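dumping these here so i dont lose them again. two proteins, back to back, each one seq then structure tokens. dont judge the mess
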Amino acid sequence: MKVTVDRTLCDGNGVCMGIAPEVFDIDDDLNLHVLDEIPNDPDVHARVRQSITSCPLLALTLVEG
């Protein structure tokens, strides 16, 4: 599982970080950072999927595999 970010869409609103803070982080310049290795935990994976579908700007994409 990998998450990609469309940097032209992401405005750093933090919805994803609020849902899965162990995977998403927003720095002081409102740039989103995503862990390269998402923990192999079903609960974390579910919250990552929820983060992607909750993004108001549709800036996140899930790549399985």
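---- next one ----
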Amino acid sequence: MVLLHALSRLRAAGVGCELSAQHVQHGLSPHADAWVDSCQELCQRLDVPLAIARVQVPLGSGEGIEGAARRQRQAVFARCEADWLALAQHRDDQAETVLFRLLRGAGVRGAAGMPEERSQAAGPRLIRPLLGLSRATIAAYAAEQALSWVEDESNADLRLRRNHLRHEVLPCIAQQFPAAAQALARAAGHFAEAARLLDDLAAIDRSRVAGAHGRIDLRRFSLLSAARARNLLRHELLVAGMRAPETRWLDEALRQLANADAASATCVGTVDGELHVYRDEIHVVRQRPAVPTVPLAWHGEAQLAWGADRLSFALATGDGISRRLLAGDAVCLRTRGGGEALQPDPRRPRRSLRKLFQEAGVPPWERNRLPLLCCGERVAWVAGFGVDAAFACAPGEAGIVVALHSGAQQRIEQGLGSPPGAARGGSSGR
């Protein structure tokens, strides 16, 4: 409430910006609807547009209610149509965060607390303009402006560790260290600086161990000290959008990587993804929605979903798959089951998909996600490899150009070159 009120005063003072508000209704409190009503009343009074997002917090996910709710909020934040998204955490929140994370054994990055601003993988840049102000200062502003709000009853629940720190531990510390909150917030700044230096070190190490395709070369990686190897792995996971792993996870990853070879499969996984080794390179693979496990019939739709990806079907002339040949049997999309073959180049013999995948360097975990377009029992098209010669469209003939849209095609071809016989771009079906 204080942050929104202060920003509205800045807008009234002539600061050139558009202002809107976003409220996330988690549905966890009996007062959740009252919070919505309170936000609506204030926004109407301040003439600020308000968007309300109602989310379902998954329980039993293993990350706790607070963690699950945070993920739901972050998903909403990523969808906000704005340049900046201002959050209202203050200095006392920062002190609690630092102390809480230290007691949980956090590393340098975790002990850095909350940054004043940071970018997201998607959505607006997050800023915390109140992070340097104390709770008392903010409360004084609220009293001066006669602001009212609905109190979150869970803030008084001492069974929650954050609340125990806030109401029991920090007041006790403040009796001996009156500036404890300021000191913890200042320490967060020191930790943040150290984290940036570790990121710089990770970038240096990565440039030294990168292979021909830009990924981490396993043999060069094995020459790093354990501390620098852990730092580089942690950096790679964070850059991939995954959560910072625990030290025991990193230690297990290093143990398995030390015994990995070119034929290794999954190294070690987390809830966010997995580490793989393929052709002496380390791959960080984020968790993705599953692709269909049963054949997906195609009845002429212009688009079909494929996991998190999308397939498009465009009408063409003299290009893609012959519509005449597709009309002879039921058409479906499926993953490979084993034994399939393809002839993407009419000048070369038909070859098994297994051989084509191996020659193209398609990693094993990607092979079972690629869509195959089949006409009856015959494979007519494979993502990344194009149309089978038996289904190729003749000049002037009506055709269908199939394309896979997402990062899947990039993962197939990045740094590996186009697969033998594939069309330009690999996914168009030419």
